[in-house]
Amino acid sequence: MGTAEQAERRTGRKRLVSLLSAALLIFGTSVAFVTGTTSAAADPIEGCTATTGAIVAVDFGPFGGKVERGCDTTPTTGYELLHAGGFTTEGTQHDGPAFICRIGSGSFNSGTQYPTADKEPCVLTPQATAYWSYWTASPGQKTWTYSSLGAMARIPKAGDVDAWVFGSTDIGGTSGKPAFSPDDVRAARGTPDPDPTGPPPVPPGTVDVPAATRWITGKLTDGERVVDEGATTPNYLLTTEAVYALAGADPKSAAARKAADFLAAPAHTDAYAYPAGKAGIPDATAAARLALVAEATGKDPRAFGGHDLLGDLVRYVCPRDIGDGETIEGCLTKGDFRTTGQSDAQAMAVIALLNGGVTPPADAVKRLTALQCEDGGFTSILIRSGGWCDSDANATALIALALKRAGGHDAVVEKARAHLRKSQLPTGAWPAAAYMTTGNAASTGWAAQAMRALGDTPYADAGLFWLSKQQLPGGAFGFEEGLTEPQLYPTAPAVVAAAKSDLVKLTTKKVDPPTPPTTPSPPTTPSPPTTPPGDGPDLKKGTAYLTDTARLIQGRYYENTPGSGFADYGLTIDGAYALAATGENDSVLRNIVDFLDKGGKDGKGRGVHDWTLIGTKHAGGGSLGKTALLAEVVGRDPRAFGGQDLIAALAKAVCPAPSTAPDRSCAAKGAYTNAPSVFSQSLAVIAQVRAGESAAAADPIAYLESLQEPSGAWPSLIGTPSGAEVDSTAMAAMALDLLPDAKAQAAVDKALVWLAAQQKDDGGFPGASGNSVNSAALAVQGMTLDAPKYRTQIAKARKFLATQQNGDGGFDVAKGGQPGSDVRASTQAVGGATGISFATLTRSLAGTVPQPVPTGTTGAPVIVTPGGETASSVGGSESGGRLASTGTQVAGIAAAAVALVFGGWGTTRVARRRRRHHQTTGGRA
Description:
The protein is of the alpha+beta class. Helix content is 37%, strand content 7%.
């Protein structure tokens, strides 16, 4: 579910923590390296080279040891690399062996695992200031990257090196890095950077630009605007993309000018760039895009739609960092264009100002240079100095274009140019991220634009060769290599590149006088939607993926570790929520619920309350709330579920005051015991309120409300400083949406405004893993609380989710990340795109009957049916394939097929109407 909740269950999770590890290393002795000590089971360290196998290094410095290395010549996962390298591990009682709580090595202190039991009992997730964090580096990479995947999900490549460090780091991996470099522990102590001698040796290729522009023109409703399928309002962002492509291909394009006329109508300029009203802060991303539209079609960006777009951009540049005085809405640090949040918007604003004859504020240009990563690329999000920097091809190309246009930043541009050269694939394509091995049409389009502008024509031409092979029969391009669904977002930059132009060039060249704007039609108020807009993922395929017994063991539970027999009860309940949201397989949902409710045991003899730990001092409010909510969803009694009164346990779990060290169970008055995240707090509140226990939940509700930031967002963690997060904000909004009072409703409205502002150009949302499926789906659920207002954003997010669905029906963790379906991401995806809030989710099991456990498997759960009969199975192992989600830090949510999604959409819309009504009447939702 939420990022923080998943983080409690993963190997090598991202947590916001202190600098304990760094302090120990600073005040202790310097790090020493053991070069040849391996256990008997480990591959010889010499077996790993720059092109064979992978190295893992574990720093035992905090425990008086050294950095120990291990080798796996044939690594399959980061988890196996750790073990094959000669290390032993131990998990937690709550989450099983996949959550690495201790690590030992035969080369240090006779194999003792650290931290020892007297320091960390390894019952629950270790404290936020002391845990094993997971870092990776690819061949040639000089610095460590905090892994966005858990060790169970990450697949090391030849020449990779992994590191495990005990202590602390934050969610972005900006602190607590290893005290040694990747080269210090690589095979043969490091390898030189790749030094490409020239562009990929590919033949010339030609993109059919006329076919592409015909396809784009055909996407324009009435020849003037892009409207997503199922929507009634324009998709302004994609309309601007269409203008760039058409103007780039033909500076006199009548279609581009007609679309620009539409955008210049005051009603549409206001709707896109001034959602807060004429007196409010403009959406800087939209203002920059519209200014570029004006410049590309000969219009005046200082008199566009009744606004001085360039003047407004300059007026709303952030004057200081958020840490230097009072917080300024929409600002992160000095030089940001307020409300942007993304690097591409910052670069577009700089280009628009320069091409409009306005000198951009020096701090705004300097801000771009501060986004450069150590490898020369640029990150896609606006980070503060020293933040976690992960190079993105699109951002690198666009910022390089902006800085070249600005002048005076030759060294920075040259470093970006070298990065683009090095990251180009042998096929001629550019991947979305440097560690990927497949091409991306949008990234290749942007990179080819930049390389041609920077004088690297052969590299740009090689990119066009790859694009020519990816162009679809109708002229468009898909999002990723090999995808056959045409999309406007990747097609636009590909067309500009194929026309041998670029965004700077097409917005600075001379054009004919602008066509007088047409008289806009009076704006109309769209009717409230009855179905979710836009194309979504295939719900039936997603459900089939989730219910396949290769993953859902005997149709009852998901394993923590493949073949372990150890149930991941949190993930299993996530799967049940997804099935309840879609209604595609109520029989399997019944099996899961009966397994949890009627005494089912996993292959280790554990039931669900071995996970909730109800009745013990380790009982967690999040686990109790999550289980109670499932009972409420399917009509079971949460006061007698699995033989326990979960609602009474939740009431007992409410903290009367913060606990004192070393007890860390209570973060504050109103928090729940052992519930360290906003996600857990929200789940427990929902469970209590749905059970009619609003009075008992009064303190938890007040505490949840107190955690909301001035921006409208919620942080990820409780009791430990952490940044604003999409997942937690969506979940908190769902919880407070259950409440009728004006304060709660105002908090929800503010949260939804913040959520919508986080959406990326491709419809995705940022999460700890990048462009996260999990975050996008939770955002859909959150924004659907006010579906009429956020119809366009919801449609974009659903389309994004559809692009992340694989042929097997499952979903990737994040766009541009390690490819391959992930169970946890898929549970979120299949339920999330229905738009149904967890707070209102219901599914009747009437008409279903308990099913017997399949025979022929080992580790069989014991199922006690409602009739009192016990079924079990014995036999050979057929537990199925690898559980891709085990140990992942962030997973995604994907979507439901249209038919059943519609029902959930309508239910949520009715609930929202009630919420609006109660705001004025004071009634109860």
